[in-house]
Design a protein that fits this description.
With 449 residues, this protein is α+β, with helices and mostly antiparallel strands. The chain contains 11 helices and 26 strands. Strands 1-2-3-4-14-10-9-7-8 form a 9-stranded antiparallel β-sheet. It has a 7-stranded parallel β-sheet with strand order 15-16-19-23-24-25-26. Strand 9 and strand 10 (132-137) form a beta hairpin.
Length: 449
């Protein structure tokens, strides 16, 4: 039994399991740790892969895990065992495919791989009001996954990653509450924020969260549509003159920038046919009303690769900036300084993550991509909205204070919310209450008037 103290979460004791692996005549110790905490009702599971680079040529995909620690059996122990579960899964921070069921061996609890998220277990006989726990990644959010193989729930490095660097660590948390589902999710969120020293400074002071804004995104009247014979510049200025609502910012959607191959972004600049006099001119004409701006995945023919380091994927025809915070600093600072950007909306996170192959094979790339974006936003004094994120993106935001919000529903619709969409309001309120960002709903009746 080993004891220690975490400067944030306090004292712990742990059981260590040391596995000796022999690879090509080289011996390495891989250590699993089961840690119990004195001050929080949780167990954490840690895996240290040892002092050697680990490479494995066995072909696995994203639905598998390359390492397995820990694992849990999905089963009904006896006829008195009435455990249920629900899980956050898929797009929109896990709301898109959120589902529930019985914790039995015949059920598929999660969609293994990239889209999987935290799993909540509870006692059905108690109607979810008492014993409950949550299983969640605790670190390395972009490179590790939950995977279900038969009736075994496994956690580890994504199977599509074949090389693990020396001294790599990943961890998972099992958090318990005797006060039911809402409390366990809430207390887990508080603990995760404490563990990563995450505060809500930027979230609480974000204009785009605290005040009314004018949006031009999917479902809005001016989404890829202008007023009569006017161009977009004239339309936005007309809206500003005529609208009497006390809005505090204007959102520009994907209609304003250059697109390249496969619909990706070739240049995140205003096109002259959209804003003939440029965005700085428009910003001045709307009396320096701050702007929020949409962006999507990067195209393989992006102009930025001429100056900055990018990775390319010929299959998806996407690209991604790598290893250079200067790209994000330059991009967001120019927008902030010249045309009033206060919120950068990174959309299509699911598509960039699921379709861009290097993110499936490089154990460090996903985290580096999002941290670099966050560092650029910090230097530019701009906040970030994650749009179409998986649960892993939301978890990674623990380390990125500038991510102040995430979307939990689809674009606006032209009709009132369905029962499933209205269910998102529970998700919105409950999740934002316990997490490190605000959740954004997009379900309104659109009226051309």
């Amino acid at each position: 039994m080993v004891q220690g103290n975490d400067p944030i979460l306090g004292a712990w004791n742990e059981t260590q399991l040391i596995f000796n692996l022999t690879l090509d005549s080289t011996s390495v110790n891989v250590t699993g740790q089961i840690r119990q905490w004195d001050t929080i009702p949780a167990l954490t599971f840690h895996l240290n892969t040892g002092g050697q680079v680990l490479t494995n040529d066995i072909v696995l995909n994203m639905t598998n895990v390359r390492t397995v620690f820990p694992s849990f059996k999905i089963e009904q122990i006896d006829t008195n065992d009435h455990r249920g579960y629900f899980t956050f899964e898929g797009v929109m921070m896990g709301y898109d495919e959120i589902h529930a069921g019985l914790w039995t061996s015949s059920n598929t609890v999660i969609k293994s791989g990239m889209e999987a998220g935290p799993v909540v277990l509870f006692n059905l006989t108690q109607r979810g009001q008492n014993d409950a726990l949550i299983l969640s990644p605790f670190s390395q959010f972009m490179a590790t996954s939950l995977s279900q193989q038969s009736n075994i729930l496994q956690y580890g490095v994504m199977g599509s990653i074949s090389t693990i660097p020396a001294n790599y660590n990943h961890s998972m948390i099992l958090f318990y509450s005797s006060k039911g589902i809402n409390d366990v999710v809430h207390q887990w969120g508080v603990t995760m924020q404490r563990a990563y020293n995450r505060n809500n400074q930027y979230r609480l002071n974000d204009i785009t969260i605290n005040y009314l804004g004018y949006y031009t995104d999917g479902g809005a009247y001016y989404y890829y549509n202008t007023e009569g014979s006017l161009n977009y510049q004239e339309t936005i200025l007309s809206v500003h003159r005529k609208l009497t609502l006390p809005y505090h910012y204007i959102q520009l959607d994907s209609w304003f920038y250059y697109k390249g191959l496969n619909g990706g972004v070739s240049q995140w600049q205003a096109r002259p046919d959209i804003f003939p006099d440029g965005l700085p001119f428009v910003y001045r004409q709307v009396e320096n009303t701050p702007l929020a701006a949409h962006n999507r995945y990067w195209a393989i023919d992006t102009v930025y690769s001429e100056k900055y380091a990018f990775l390319f994927d010929n299959i998806s025809q996407m690209s991604l900036p790598i290893g250079n915070d200067t790209f994000w600093i330059d991009l967001l600072s120019e927008a902030s300084n010249t045309w009033g950007l206060i919120m950068y909306e990174q959309d299509w996170l699911h598509k960039q993550t699921s379709n861009f192959k290097p993110l499936h094979t490089d154990i460090l790339l996903g985290k580096q991509w999002l941290l670099s974006m966050g560092e650029g936003a910090e230097k530019a004094n701009v906040n970030i909205q994650y749009c179409s994120p998986y649960p892993r993106h939301a978890l990674q935001a623990l380390e990125i204070p500038r991510v102040t919000q995430a979307r939990v529903s689809s674009d606006y619709t032209s009709t009132y919310c369905s029962s499933r969409e209205s269910m998102g309001y529970w998700y919105d309120n409950d999740v934002s209450r316990c997490t490190w960002y605000s959740t954004i709903q997009r379900c309104f009746l659109v009226d051309n008037e």
